[in-house]
Design goal:
The chain is built from 4 helices and 2 strands; from the N terminus they run ββαααα. It is mainly α and 89 residues long. It has one domain. It has a two-stranded antiparallel sheet with strand order 1-2.
Length: 89
Amino acid sequence: MEVSGCPTTPITLNQSPPTASELISLSSLRTLLLPTLSLPHIAPHLELISDWKLLRFLHGYSNNIEDAKAAYERMSDFRLEYNVGYITL
């Protein structure tokens, strides 16, 4: 598909299972985030607590667990402050 003369490149997704080291990092991150993952504005949204979502944070912060944790908590605070995930009419 082309929009206004701008070619688009298909996005390829890595659908391979997490590596052994990623599983260890995921476990550590999930343990550190347990209080946040249990919050009422996060817990019902399975897409926010999945391994794939947490892996995105780990990959985005060069597998630094503390940085990924801090970023996830900022995302959680943002969602709470702006009622993201709630439909209001």
